[in-house]
Structures are given as structure tokens and as C-alpha cells.
Automatic annotation (TrEMBL):
Residues 1-25 are annotated as: Disordered. Pfam families: HTH_1, LysR_substrate. InterPro entries: HTH-type_LysR_regulators (IPR050950), LysR_HTH_N (IPR000847), LysR_subst-bd (IPR005119), WH-like_DNA-bd_sf (IPR036388), WH_DNA-bd_sf (IPR036390). GO terms for molecular function: DNA binding; DNA-binding transcription factor activity. This is Transcriptional regulator, LysR family. Keywords: DNA-binding, Plasmid, Transcription, Transcription regulation. Residues 7-17 have a biased composition (Basic and acidic residues). PANTHER family: HTH-TYPE TRANSCRIPTIONAL REGULATOR YBHD. Residues 29-86 form the HTH lysR-type domain. Belongs to the LysR transcriptional regulatory family. It comes from Azospirillum baldaniorum. One of its GO terms (cellular component) is cytosol.
Length: 341
């Protein structure tokens, strides 16, 4: 049989020179057998197929009989000339063509640096960005990726899943600068803003922030979350040690608490977009002290997904710069110059 890229050859060129292939078990077949079958099916003659494949007629006939034994059905109607496929044979011909075509693409798909095909993309996203960002992202990626699985949660959880290879790409506020075999691309930088009940007084400076912290409890992220740690550290730098009253791992609940006048909070604008249904019942103010910001990064392993991580970053940037924050900018125009790369 002539060698064709992507197919392993172990069929005998002559049954007298080489031991016959081992008997097939049910559905236990190789690519060579499928190619022999497809060639016979398309030429309608075992002798002509043998000539094209560089085999003896007896070797071709042997392969066809093995397939019929493996599938426990007749694949060719030999009572007519030229012989023709049975219904079962036609089904096997259809699927064999697909299997052989996929097999020929394997070297490029598996080993190629810029492999265009990813059968399933496993994405992780911090909770504050997950919606509506992720649906918009998937809508633009689905033409090149047939299947997705999505995990949303805390940055620590996403890091653990990424390191365990349960996720391929993550959106997180950790840069992974401590890892050499990781590509990290900044997606957006955003400020923390002050969320207060609608009837709360203005908070124009650090003194106003201290007065607010004495009048109302701080609605916090949980201490094990990245946002929670960032807020606690920044408030300590300002000399604000605020007692713990409420801590949540979901920004939607935090904003609902502020809307119900249960306290005040500090969150980035992506969190406000995610839980925008509460915005009409609270006020958003600039943080009145030293600048307080965070960045979100796209993280992927070096060289494993070809050009796909760069495309994900480009699509993600497009989403965030083309109308994602429009509702916030209309209500609080001072926010617009504070969000960037």
C-alpha cells in the first residue's frame, strides 16, 4: 500500500511474506482497514482496489471479510456485478470517509503551532466579569470552537483549576507574573468606586469616608477573595480599621445590601455592570482618597493554543471598549476616563 500522510501502515503487501493481521474484535479496527474498505466501495471491485492500493487481491478480500466479521453484518452485495454496498456498508462508507479525513488532519491539529481547531475550550472567569461579558465573548468565538465549558468564581479557585489543567484560559485579576510558562495579557484596568445608599450624604474627601465608615457598616467581599483582600489592604493603608459586619462572595448580594440601605461598599465598574439591576436604588461616587485600581488579565499556557489566546484577548478588549460600560458612563460620566488598558 502506498504511504499517505496521517495513516499508519501495517497491512501486508503479500500474505506469503507477512503474517496476517490479528483477528478483529467487535468494533476493533484500524485506519488501514477503513481505507481498504473505502477504496473497494468506490471502485466497486476488489481487484481494481488491490491494484490501486498496492496489495494482492486476497489481502483486500481478507480485510473486507474481517470488517464484516467485526461488524457482524454484510457490507457488500456480491450477488450483483459490479458488487454494491448494502445499507450497512453505505453507513460504514460514510463514517469511514469522515474518520479518514479527520485522521489526515491530526498531525497539523495536534502538533501545529497555530492549530486552528480546538474541540473544547475550557474558560474560567472571575465572578465580577462573568456576565454579560462571557455570553458576548462566546458569541464571537463559537465559529472556531465547537464546544465550551465555563467556570465562574473567585480568582483563587480559577488559579487552582488552571494549575491543575482543568481550565485552558482564565480571566482573572492576578497577572501570573511569577510563572514563566504562562502568557499574561492585560484586558482592562478599572478603579474601585464607592457605593452608598441613595439618602447617604456626599463623601467628597477622606474625612467624609471616615464619617461614612462610622455611620454605616462596610459591605465586604469575603476575606478569601482577591477583591476582599485588596479592599482590606487599601483601607489599612489609609488607617481605616473597619469592624467586620457583613461579608459576601457574590457582588449581586453586596449591591442589594447597599440598595436596601444596609451599608456601603467598594467595587469595580465591571461588578456594577454585572449587577446593574440595583443601580437605580443606590449612588455611585468616586473613591475619595488615594487612587485605588485593579487590572484584569487573560491567562493561557505558552504555545499550547496557537493564536487563540491572542484572539480571545482581542475580542475581549473589543467587547469592553464598544458599549460595555455605556450605561455607567451615561449616569456617571466621570467614570469614562478612569477605565482603560
Amino acid at each position: 500500500m502506498r504511504h499517505r500522510p496521517g495513516l499508519h501502515r501495517d497491512l501486508p503487501h503479500d500474505r506469503q511474506k507477512t503474517k496476517p493481521a490479528r483477528p478483529m474484535r467487535h468494533r476493533d479496527f484500524d485506519l488501514d482497514a477503513l481505507e481498504v474498505f473505502v477504496t473497494v466501495a468506490e471502485l466497486g471491485n476488489m481487484t481494481r482496489a488491490a491494484g490501486q492500493l498496492g496489495l494482492t487481491q486476497s489481502a483486500v478480500s481478507h480485510v473486507v471479510r474481517q470488517l464484516e466479521t467485526a461488524f457482524a453484518t454484510q457490507l457488500f452485495d456480491r450477488s450483483i456485478r459490479p458488487m454494491a454496498l448494502t445499507a450497512a456498508g453505505h453507513r460504514l462508507w460514510h463514517w469511514s470517509k469522515r474518520i479518514l479525513n479527520d485522521a489526515r488532519q491530526l498531525p497539523a491539529v495536534i502538533g501545529g503551532k497555530d492549530a486552528p481547531f480546538v474541540p473544547e475550550l475550557r474558560l474560567g472567569c472571575i465572578d465580577t466579569l462573568a456576565a454579560p461579558f462571557m455570553p458576548r465573548l462566546l458569541q464571537q468565538l463559537r465559529d472556531g470552537v465547537p464546544s465550551f465549558s465555563i467556570a465562574a468564581g473567585l480568582s483563587r479557585q480559577l488559579r487552582e483549576q488552571f494549575m491543575a489543567r482543568r481550565l485552558d484560559v482564565i480571566f482573572t485579576n492576578e497577572s501570573f507574573d511569577d510563572m514563566d510558562q504562562v502568557d499574561s495579557a492585560r484586558l482592562v484596568t478599572e478603579p474601585f468606586v464607592l457605593l452608598v445608599p441613595r439618602n447617604a450624604p456626599e463623601v467628597a474627601d477622606e474625612a467624609g469616608l471616615r464619617a461614612l465608615s462610622q455611620a454605616l457598616p462596610l459591605i465586604r467581599n469575603t476575606a478569601d477573595s482577591s477583591l476582599g483582600r485588596m479592599v482590606d489592604q487599601h483601607l489599612r493603608r489609609l488607617g481605616l480599621e473597619i469592624p467586620r459586619s457583613f461579608a459576601f462572595d457574590a457582588v449581586d448580594t453586596m449591591m442589594a445590601m447597599v440598595a436596601e440601605e444596609m451599608g456601603w461598599s467598594l467595587l469595580p465598574p465591571t461588578a456594577l455592570v454585572k449587577s446593574r439591576q440595583h443601580l437605580g436604588r443606590l449612588r455611585v461616587l468616586p473613591f475619595p482618597a488615594a487612587s485605588f485600581r485593579r487590572s484584569i488579565f487573560v491567562i493561557a499556557r505558552k504555545g499550547e493554543l496557537g493564536a487563540l489566546p491572542a484572539r480571545i484577548h482581542k475580542v475581549g478588549r473589543g467587547i469592553l471598549t464598544q458599549g460595555y460600560f455605556t450605561e455607567l458612563f451615561i449616569s456617571w460620566p466621570w467614570l469614562k476616563p478612569m477605565i482603560g488598558r
